[in-house]
Design goal:
heterodimer; A: 85 residues; 5 helices; 62% helix; B: 230 residues; eight-stranded mixed sheet; two-stranded antiparallel sheet; 10 strands; 20% strand
Chain lengths: 85, 230
């Protein structure tokens, strides 16, 4: 079942990151930089994007100025995509 | 839909034209060895792979012999490949040359944190078989660990290919640039496929590297076996 837009994307993002990076949700939330603290590489980032896309049935289009390196930054991208839908 | 090809500017286009002409000189009267066997092997891999995506990888020192081969073989190895080119100066030039040869290229802007994610996403989703250098970002002569991740991300079958020239000029002793001698012999060998994660056994960098070494040895053997008689 697809997640409703009204659901806070933070939980969805944290869950996707925890699954992909094999870390606890606490570790994910505490990380300042997902790349530095949890070794998130570009493939892991893409897998996270795919999980979020599947969850909301949207396409995450990453902009040049986006930072895909923290929960807050990814949530901001998801919110932008959902609003544009 | 966004056109992800590397865009060329005028100086780059001119340089690509010059290099294409140089490529014509290099490939003039050169003999390709092992092409028929490679065609057959590719066909087998495509048939056996079914819906699985393919990812062909090679060493960067094979890049120019490979370009010569692409020019020589034209459509024999298929036209549906998309070549991954880094966003470096050299990568852009190679991309421009490939486009002049009617090939499709995909850019990989690995130096940019966010755009690299965008590009990797395109590479993972790309349905066409990809060709990529395994050591384009160094260390040269070794499979970069990120290749394994790309193979897994695409759920791909990785296929090592090696294209060697019987005689080549090493620029400044570089391990990266080998320019084949004009009119010489060039051998192509397609190695055994390495499949991405099946169950709990993910593909390893060592397996990818072993496949490449075997393909290289096969290409060298083809060259030895095709030496012209005195």
């Amino acid at each position: 079942m697809k997640t409703q837009e009204s659901v806070d994307p933070t939980d969805v993002v944290v869950r996707a990151l925890a699954t992909e990076l094999k870390a606890s949700e606490e570790e994910i939330r505490a990380a300042r930089s997902l790349k530095t603290d949890l070794n998130m590489d570009s493939i892991a980032a893409v897998n996270v994007a795919f999980m979020i896309e599947d969850e909301y049935d949207v396409e995450i289009d990453i902009d040049e100025n986006d930072k895909f390196d923290s929960v807050e930054a990814i949530v901001a991208i998801v919110r932008r995509v959902l609003e544009a839908r | 839909m966004t056109d992800r090809r590397v865009r060329t500017n005028a100086p780059l286009g001119t340089l690509a034209a010059v290099l294409s002409a140089f490529l014509f000189v290099l490939s003039w009267r050169s003999k390709v060895v092992g092409l028929e066997r490679a065609e057959g092997h590719l066909q087998e891999i495509r048939s056996a792979g079914g819906e699985r995506r393919l990812l062909f990888y090679y060493l960067i020192e094979d890049a120019i012999p490979l370009l010569v081969l692409v020019r020589q073989a034209r459509i024999r190895l298929g036209l549906d490949f998309a070549s991954v080119c880094g966003n470096t100066w050299m990568g852009r030039v190679v991309s421009a040359v490939l486009m002049r040869l009617g090939r499709r290229t995909l850019s990989f802007r690995f130096e940019h944190a966010t755009l690299s994610i965008k590009d990797v996403k395109a590479l993972v989703r790309e349905p066409a078989p990809l060709t990529i250098s395994a050591d384009g970002r160094g260390p040269y002569g070794h499979v970069h660990p990120d290749l394994r991740r790309l193979v897994e991300g695409r759920d791909a079958i990785a296929v090592p290919i090696s294209v060697c020239a019987a005689r080549s000029l090493r620029l400044c002793g570089s391990r990266r640039v080998a320019v084949p001698w004009p009119g010489g012999r060039i051998a192509i060998a397609v190695g055994a496929p390495v499949a991405a994660a099946v169950g709990d056994e993910p593909v390893s960098t060592e397996a990818l590297e072993a496949g490449l070494r075997a393909a290289r040895a096969a290409a060298k053997r083809l060259l030895v076996g095709s030496e012209p008689r005195e």
